[in-house]
Amino acid sequence: MAALEDPGLARVMWTHFEPVHAVTYFHPRARAAYEAVGLRGYWRGYFAGRAAPLGPTPAPPVIAAFFSFAPRMVARALPSVWRLATPEEALRARLTGAVQALAEFTYELPEAHLVEAAELLEAAAGQVETAGRVLGAVNAALPAGEYPLARLWQAATTLRENRGDGHVAALVTTGLDPVEVLAWRCRVDQSREFHQPARGWTDEEWAAAEERLVARGWLTAEWEPTAYGSEAFRAVEEATDRAAAGPWRALGAERTERLRELLEPIARRCRTIIPRQSPIGLSAARPS
Length: 288
Description:
This protein is an all-alpha fold. The chain contains 15 helices and no strands. The chain starts with 7 loop residues before the first helix and ends in an 18-residue tail after the last helix. It comes from Micromonospora kangleipakensis.
C-alpha cells in the first residue's frame, strides 16, 4: 500500500469506502426505503437523500454543490421533494436503505469485523477538514449511527462527500463548467450515452461544450484529448487526492492498513451492484 505521505493513498482508500457509500444509489433496498416515505422515482430519492443534510434547501445550493447536473434537472426535484418528505424523513430513509443493503453484503462477516471497521472508519471520518467543504461538513455533523452498519455507512458517506467537495474545488480551478468536464471525460474514458442523460444536459449544450473544449485546447479538432487537457486533468486528480489525505495521516499507517483489510471484502461485495458506466468513477478501480 502507498505510504502515508503519498497522496495516492487517499485514492486507494477511496476505492474501499466509496462502494460502501454507493449502495444508497444502486441497491433496490435503498430505493424502496425512499419510496416508503413518499419519494417515488429514482431522482426524487437521490436529490432528497443526498441534499437532506443541508435541510429543506432550494435548488441553487445543490446545483453548486453537486456540480455536474444541469440546473433544470435539480430544479425539477428541489424544493418540491420537501412537500413529499421532510429532510429528517429523507435522512432516516437513506440510512435505513443503506443499512439494509449492507446487511445483504456483510451477513457472512463476523460482528467483530464490522465493529472494528466501523470504529476505524469513524476515526478517519472524524479527522476530515471541513472548511470550505459544505457537503462534507453537514454529513460530519450528523449523529453517529446506533449500530455498526449504520456507523460504517455514515462514516463512508462523510469521507466521500468531503472528498467530493475537494474534487469540485479542484475542477473549478480549471475554468471548465460542469458540462465541459463531463464532455471531456466522455472523450477520454466515460460514456456519453450514460452520462449525458444522467446529468440532464441537452444535445445542443453538449455539442457547444465540446466546441468550447476545442477552442480552449482541451480537445483536438478531431475530438481527441490533447496533452494539455490530459495534464490539466491529471493535476485535478492529484489535487483531489492531496486534499483528501489528511484523515489517513491522522489515522496512521498501521490503522489505515488494518482498515483497508477490513473494508476490502465489504467493498468487493458492494461493487457488484455498481453499473460499469457509473458516474462515480469506480468502473476501472478494484480494491486490492
